[in-house]
């Protein structure tokens, strides 16, 4: 699920292969676009909104579909060659998608062509959430291996790993990009300061 940048719209997917566009103030549906069937939507619920609010990226089978955020019209398809992400996010400039899934690899993808720019390796289980710093230079990923890993996207390398047993799989950076919030199944929220060399 994602809000549009102006806060006026809300976008969500379902298990039947549809992307729904809602008025965030009234909850009224604006549009529904069927992008697949229950058989080929392997990872329903995974979507990312372009920073300018014009394009939605949604996972359908092994593809990422790019949809017009206003009309739902398809703008393009990015074939991920059997690497569909469980989680993904656009970089703030909108030029790249960072995604990770069952192959345990964090892939940096060209948002225009779908080409893989970098493969960041370190996790040993499914990647379930991704957060990017506001300047787009750093990514944090959390996986079912109960670790959070911090990545320098410019250098394409891991800069830190945190053991987070009991974490729920949800993470977020603060507005300054210097602290990372990690949610836990016991209802707690813990804040981690980024290392000085990150």
Descriptive account of the structure:
- The protein is mostly beta strands.
- The protein has no helices and 19 strands.
- The strands form five sheets. The protein has a four-stranded antiparallel sheet with strand order 1-2-3-4, with no helix packed on it. Strands 5-6-7-8 form a four-stranded antiparallel sheet, with no helix packed on it. A four-stranded antiparallel sheet has the order 9-10-11-12, with no helix packed on it.
- A hairpin with a 5-residue loop joins strand 3 and strand 4.
- It is globular, with a radius of gyration of 16 Å.
- This is WD40 repeat domain-containing protein.
Name the average pLDDT. 85
In what order do the strands lie side by side in the largest sheet?
1-2-3-4
How far apart lie the N and C ends? 29 Å
Q: Unreliable stretches, pLDDT < 50, 5 or more residues?
A: none
Structural class per helix/strand content?
Answer: mainly beta
The proportion of residues forming helix, as a percent range, comes to under 10%
Q: Got a strand count?
A: 19
InterPro entries: Quinoprotein_ADH-like_sf, WD40/YVTN_repeat-like_dom_sf, WD40_repeat_CS, WD40_rpt
WD repeats: 120-161, 171-198
Protein name: WD40 repeat domain-containing protein
Pfam families: WD40
């Amino acid at each position: 699920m994602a809000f549009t940048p102006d806060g006026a719209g809300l976008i969500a997917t379902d298990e039947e292969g549809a992307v729904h566009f809602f008025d965030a103030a009234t909850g009224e549906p604006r549009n529904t676009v069927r992008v697949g069937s229950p058989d080929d939507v392997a990872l329903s619920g995974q979507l990312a909104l372009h920073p300018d609010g014009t394009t939605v990226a949604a996972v359908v089978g092994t593809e990422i579909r790019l949809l017009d955020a206003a009309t739902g019209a398809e703008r393009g398809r990015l074939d991920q060659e059997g690497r569909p992400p469980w989680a993904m996010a656009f970089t703030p400039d909108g030029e790249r998608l960072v995604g990770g899934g069952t192959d345990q690899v964090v892939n940096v993808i060209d948002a225009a062509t779908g080409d893989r720019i970098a493969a960041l390796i370190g996790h040993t289980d499914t990647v379930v959430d991704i957060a990017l710093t506001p300047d787009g230079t750093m990514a944090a990923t959390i996986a079912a291996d109960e670790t959070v890993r911090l990545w320098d996207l410019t250098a394409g390398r891991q800069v830190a790993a945190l053991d987070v047993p009991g974490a729920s799989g949800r993470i977020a950076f603060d507005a300054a990009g210097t602290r990372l919030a990690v949610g836990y199944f016991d209802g707690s929220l813990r804040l981690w300061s980024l290392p000085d060399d990150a």
